[in-house]
């Protein structure tokens, strides 16, 4: 009931505020009435090059043993001590004949073999151990958005960004105004590693052939390619219906809050974060919704691909804002992709 009252209040207040014409979009960049702070998260060109050079030096990581892996462990000339199909348990240990539990999680195969030989050397002179993998969990990357075959892909040795795009079938196409066109918006595409947005620029790589952006891939890398055709706005955070909303001309912050069902928390923060320009070249706008409702400032006009985030508590640090947004953004994008795939499958049949 409280949530319904909040939505009604927002709607009435929004209608009252609409007497003040929404500020022209072209003037948004210059005005300061919306922002306590604008963080222009642009790296200097020299910093970008330095980061990319560092990313280029990253070598494909040698496979590290993890829980769930299974091995046959042989001790040469000691058939009685063969341990077949032994599981690496959640605590990282493997059970072996004679020596018992040995912790090998996080080690490479050569490191684990050397450790097991050391354990057996207490009982056998100069033991030679062989570890034969029966089941290994592979390293994977995720590529989502306007790609022909979105999903998870196993990383092959020396696999780079362009290899992943090719593996996923290249960029998706769409039928637009009677023509088949590429649907990928490379200017706002981004790549995440360890919850950090990398300086990789797909437009520079694909359109300009700048191979400095063609970095080696690591386990857990996430690549997202937005649509050039379907213009949307993301709304995330303390909202009843987080997700993607199709962008309409003159759409505003207060409108998308109402479209998404209003605040989830009955005592919301008045701060709304709008992230514009994609995660690679973002600008952060901090909006005070109470000031909008009072009529002190005009409602904030949105642009296609804006990310609207409603925090529970005010956020001031850029990195903290991005760290809050990324997990929710990935979840929404995955849900949207599944919805699109389901709808396309239904249409085929």
What is the fold's blueprint, element by element?
Elements: H1 2-17, H2 25-28, E1 39-40, H3 45-56, E2 70-75, E3 83-87, E4 93-96, E5 100-103, H4 109-120, E6 129-135, E7 140-145, E8 151-154, H5 161-167, E9 173-176, E10 179-182, E11 190-193, E12 196-197, H6 202-206, E13 222-225, E14 232-237, E15 243-246, H7 253-259, E16 271-276, E17 283-288, H8 289-294, E18 307-310, H9 318-348
Parallel strand pairs: 7-13, 14-18
Antiparallel strand pairs: 1-17, 2-3, 2-6, 4-5, 7-8, 9-10, 11-12, 11-13, 14-15, 16-17, 16-18
Structure at a glance:
With 349 residues, the protein is of the alpha+beta class. 29% of the residues lie in helices and 23% in strands.
Question: What would you say this structure looks like, in words?
Answer:
With 349 residues, the protein is an alpha+beta fold. The chain folds into 3 domains: 2-31 and 232-348, Outer membrane lipoprotein wza fold like; 46-60 and 139-225, Outer membrane lipoprotein wza domain like (Outer membrane lipoprotein wza fold like, Roll), CATH 3.10.560.10; 70-135, 2-Layer Sandwich (wza like fold), CATH 3.30.1950. It is 29% helix and 23% strand. It has 9 helices and 18 strands. A hairpin with a 2-residue loop joins strand 11 and strand 12 (196-197). The protein is elongated, with a radius of gyration of 26 Å. The two termini are 42 Å apart. Residues 1-31 and 36-42 have low confidence and may be disordered.
């Amino acid at each position: 009931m409280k949530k319904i009252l909040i939505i009604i209040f927002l709607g009435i207040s929004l209608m009252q505020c609409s007497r003040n014409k929404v500020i022209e979009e072209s003037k948004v960049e210059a005005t300061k009435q919306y922002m306590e702070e604008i963080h222009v998260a642009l790296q200097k060109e020299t910093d970008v090059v330095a980061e990319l050079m560092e990313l280029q030096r990253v070598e494909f990581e040698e496979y590290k043993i993890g829980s769930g892996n299974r091995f046959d462990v042989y001790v040469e000339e000691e058939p009685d001590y063969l341990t077949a199909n032994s599981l690496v348990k959640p605590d990282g240990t493997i059970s072996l004949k004679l020596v018992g539990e040995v912790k090998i999680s996080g080690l490479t195969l050569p490191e684990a073999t050397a450790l097991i030989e050391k354990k057996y050397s207490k009982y056998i002179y100069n033991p030679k151990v062989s570890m034969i993998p029966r089941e290994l969990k592979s390293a994977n990357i995720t590529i989502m958005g306007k790609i022909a075959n979105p999903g998870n892909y196993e990383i092959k040795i020396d696999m780079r960004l362009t290899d992943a795009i090719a593996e996923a079938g290249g960029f998706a196409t769409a039928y637009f105004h009677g023509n088949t066109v590429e649907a990928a918006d490379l200017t706002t595409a981004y790549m995440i590693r360890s919850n950090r947005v990398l300086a990789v620029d797909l437009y520079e790589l694909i359109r300009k052939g700048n191979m400095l952006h063609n970095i080696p891939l690591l386990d857990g890398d996430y690549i997202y390619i937005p649509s050039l055709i379907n213009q949307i706005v993301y709304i995330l955070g303390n909202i009843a219906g987080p997700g993607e909303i199709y962008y309409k001309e003159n759409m505003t912050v207060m409108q998308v809050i109402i479209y998404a069902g209003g605040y989830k928390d009955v005592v919301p923060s008045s701060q709304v974060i709008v992230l514009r320009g994609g995660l690679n070249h973002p600008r952060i706008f901090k909006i005070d919704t109470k000031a909008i409702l009072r009529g002190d400032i005009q409602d904030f006009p949105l642009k296609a691909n804006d990310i609207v985030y409603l925090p529970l508590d005010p956020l001031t640090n850029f990195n903290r804002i991005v760290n809050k947004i990324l997990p929710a953004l990935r979840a929404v994008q995955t849900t949207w992709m599944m919805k699109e795939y389901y709808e396309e499958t239904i249409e085929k049949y």
